[in-house]
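Bumping my old thread because nobody answered last time. Still need a sequence for this structure:
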């Protein structure tokens, strides 16, 4: 079955448009994927979908990138587009319309992107595919506050449809500072760029995080977005949802019969979710001062991971079915009282220390950071989900900058056996554990007890370990590749819906608000290169547990 666009646009383009050079055999396809694209003309309109049926290729379209000269566009969005292009996953009739304030022309901007690709592409950049890709980029100069810039943009996009066959399909991508979101959206509405055309041309908008800075601002932003676009046109991005292991979590849970029966309070003792980073705040001091770990990672990445682990099986894999289930989990996390916040949430800030054999400064000494800053660079929390499946099972989550290593994982620890049969074993058997490694070394580990060889009956924990790298021998796509492709295909399953974002904020906002009234924290309270403040260990020790060493 062909994938249908979520917003009702036809997924397959009608026949009779210019054809692209396509690989015709599996070998050609591999060559093309390795970057040795072969110029073999073909009659197939969309070979990957209609001919070989190996991959999905979106409709002809323009991607209009706001904030095109910014960091996110250069580091993530454009390299992801290049990778999609060189693996034949973008349509031949594709244009990237880069919108920015700087006075560039097409050639200057293309040259800049050429350099960007050399720095940030995850694969070596080859001259042929690069030149083809660059030829599909055009620069549109304009200030977001200037209505004329949008009038000109509208005219220009129509001209591109004519010249490049992009058929009125447009994906707007907001990679700007979040303060510009409402302005750009209102202008798009004013010039009618949100309207889908009579000829079936679709309009979608991708909105980057942060989506609001608390519940009220998220509600206001949703209201502004939905004044112009319909929810089905809106793709709020959380790049964690595009990570291969996160997507595999769904397959793991719902594509296998053996784990789901154990996935509940009867068998699970507790869950730990970690997003650890060894990096500091890089050159984002001003941004981070306003954000902190709770807005930057807890509200989005950690809440999403928690929802995916805890949700009920959706009836189908359609975007809304999946998102309905995630929303139910977030609703079942009741907002905390100030007392619960004091006891169940830990915040921390790194001081100077050593990370990967390098001496690094403390947060307060980073550029653009207040020397007396109270912004948290670490947060750990204990949540409970008040529903039938999870009542009484703690979910511990943590995230932090300048931890010993970059490592994200979800660990499900199971209850011990009800009766200890092997009492003579010299070791206390470690509990069964399932760890889903999100990064690096993506994979899944199952820990269980095994008999130590010999005449006695010693039991020791052993691991059964699956790693993506060795099992499949292919690189996983970057999350941005997956998500941009999905947005072009009209599949919103891995994007967050308005109510979902607001539910996540309704958990995190009371926490941030309560901190304002609490005594100033004794920051810095963890050394760079350590696993966070002692209070984070105490949070688990209180329940007789400890963080898994990862
Ligand atoms: C971003 C945060 O959303 O996620 C960053 O703004 C953080 O502060 C990043 O470093 C982590 O993403 P990843 O993919 O590197 O784990």
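Sorry it took so long. Here it is:
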């Amino acid at each position: 079955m062909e994938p249908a666009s979520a917003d009702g646009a036809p997924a397959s383009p009608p026949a009779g448009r210019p054809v692209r050079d396509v690989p015709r055999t599996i070998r050609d396809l591999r060559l093309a994927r390795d970057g040795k694209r072969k110029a073999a003309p073909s009659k197939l309109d969309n070979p990957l979908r209609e001919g070989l049926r190996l991959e999905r290729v979106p409709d002809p379209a323009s991607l209009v990138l706001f904030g095109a000269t910014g960091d996110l566009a250069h580091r993530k969005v454009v390299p992801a587009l290049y990778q999609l292009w060189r693996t034949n996953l973008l349509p031949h009739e594709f244009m990237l319309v880069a919108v920015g304030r700087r006075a560039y022309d097409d050639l200057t901007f293309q040259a800049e992107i050429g350099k960007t690709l050399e720095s940030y592409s995850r694969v070596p950049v080859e001259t042929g595919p690069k030149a083809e890709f660059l030829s599909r980029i055009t620069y549109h100069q304009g200030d977001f506050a200037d209505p004329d810039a949008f009038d000109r943009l509208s005219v220009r996009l129509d001209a591109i449809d004519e010249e490049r066959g992009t058929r009125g399909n447009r994906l707007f991508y907001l990679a700007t500072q979040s303060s510009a979101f409402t302005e750009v959206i209102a202008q798009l509405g004013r010039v009618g760029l949100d309207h889908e055309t009579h000829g079936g041309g679709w309009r979608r908008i991708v909105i980057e995080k942060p989506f609001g800075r608390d519940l009220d601002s998220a509600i206001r932003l949703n209201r502004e977005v939905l004044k112009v676009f319909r929810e089905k046109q809106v793709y709020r991005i959380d790049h964690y949802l595009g990570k291969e292991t996160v997507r595999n979590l769904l397959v793991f849970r719902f594509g296998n019969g053996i784990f789901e029966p154990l996935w509940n309070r009867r068998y699970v003792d507790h869950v730990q979710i970690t997003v650890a980073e060894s990096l500091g705040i890089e050159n984002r001091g001003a941004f981070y001062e306003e954000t902190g770990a709770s807005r930057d990672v807890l509200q989005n990445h950690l809440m999403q991971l928690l929802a995916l682990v805890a949700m009920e099986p959706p009836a189908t894999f359609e975007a809304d079915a999946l998102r309905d289930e995630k929303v139910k989990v977030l609703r079942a996390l009741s907002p905390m009282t100030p007392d619960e916040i004091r006891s169940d949430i830990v915040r921390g800030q790194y001081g100077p220390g050593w990370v990967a054999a390098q001496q690094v400064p403390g947060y307060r000494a980073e550029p653009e950071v207040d020397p007396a800053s109270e912004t948290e660079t670490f947060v750990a929390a204990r949540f409970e989900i008040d529903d039938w499946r999870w009542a009484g099972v703690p979910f511990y989550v943590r995230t932090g900058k300048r931890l010993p290593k970059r490592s994200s994982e979800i660990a499900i620890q199971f209850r011990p056996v009800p009766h200890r049969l092997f009492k003579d074993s010299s070791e206390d058997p470690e509990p069964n554990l399932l760890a889903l490694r999100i990064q690096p070394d993506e994979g899944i580990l199952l820990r269980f007890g095994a008999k130590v060889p010999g005449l006695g009956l010693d039991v020791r924990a052993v691991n059964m370990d699956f790693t993506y790298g060795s099992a499949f021998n292919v690189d996983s796509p970057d999350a941005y590749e997956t998500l941009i492709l999905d947005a072009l295909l009209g599949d919103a399953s891995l994007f967050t819906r308005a109510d979902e974002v607001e539910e996540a904020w309704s958990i995190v906002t009371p926490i941030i608000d309560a901190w304002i009234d609490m005594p100033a924290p004794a920051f810095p309270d963890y050394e760079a290169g350590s696993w966070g403040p002692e209070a984070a260990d105490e949070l688990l020790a209180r329940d007789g547990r400890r963080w898994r060493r990862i």
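The CA atoms of residues 5 and 547 lie 43 Å apart. Let me know if any region looks off to you.
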